[in-house]
Amino acid sequence: MDGYKRIPTAAGSLGEALALGRAFWQLTKPRVVALLVLTAWVGMMLATTGLPDFARMLVASLGIAMVSGAAAAFNHVLDHKIDARMARTRLRPLPSGRLSGAQALGFACALAAAGFVLLLVEVNALTAWLTLAGLFGYAVVYTVFLKRATPQNIVIGGVAGALPPVLGWTAMTGTVGAEAWLLMMIVFTWTPPHFWALAIHRVEDYRRAGLPMLPVTHGIEFTRTLVLLYTVLLLAVCLLPYLVGMSGPFYLAGSLALNLRFLHHAWRLKFAPRADTAIRTFRFSITHLMLLFLVLLADHYL
Ligand code: HEM
Ligand SMILES: CC(C)=CCC/C(C)=C/CC/C(C)=C/COP(=O)(O)OP(=O)(O)O
What residue range is the signal peptide (predicted)? Predict the structure, then answer.
């Protein structure tokens, strides 16, 4: 009502502070970062014989999570106009006006700097610089250039998201082992079917936003074919840890079960799709990667 001013109360300002905290938290894409950290843990544990140094693991995970969260926050800042045009993203903190661009940018810079310094001082320089390269790969190479330029954006940009197992490995050993590159290849091959399944489901969003995602540029049918082919490739890549003697029969069985399930989703998406097949395939991709890395971990200690 005109003439009446809202009187700030303690409960009101606590509510506002919590909402602000929630908005900053959302900027970091916490569920994505949680899965990235799980893949880094597997890198850390597979690099170590016997029990790892838990204190080192904790600090390294925190540093990797902070820099990855900062990368996600930069992505929110750089993409706020695109995000405002898509139904899936229009309620994010920046397009909805819950945070200003300056607040989000300041948060991203502070988080990136703190995470980088933590890794540099408490872990090692190789891990700190490689993690920063991951941030640059995602926030600049993918978000600023590739995302707007080519339907291969997520294939090339996938390198950044696939880095954490390598970061975990270097955090514990100070060097990059061949096995770490193998783990990276798994996440790299997994990324296209993960993303394209979602892009098929959200094709109208991407068309409206003017982004050259594969289903927009090459059509849904072609994208379904590539999802299927990448899941076949993923099955083959996931055999490598067993074939090179890095993992045992428990991993082989778990990996085959998960990859055959993923293949089944992709097959259905190509040959017998229903309205929800693409989104179910996307959701399964997340379960797949999480369980696959847990199986790698369990196999290591069996
Ligand atoms: C360039 C590579 C990638 C692209 C383009 C991509 C794209 C996406 C998109 C668009 C979403 C939907 C987010 C939303 O609904 O707000 C998503 C969700 C997700 N992605 Fe990816 N992704 C990539 C790599 C990764 C990697 C490497 C991981 C983890 C290892 C990952 C884990 C997840 C998880 C856990 C979710 C669900 C998030 C939630 O429910 O809040 N993604 N991804
Ligand atoms: C090691 C390191 C620092 C890596 C950073 C990796 C990182 C945070 C990857 C996130 C991958 C992801 C969610 C991409 C989606 O971006 P999008 O812009 O296509 O999706 P959106 O529309 O949901 O924002």
Answer: none
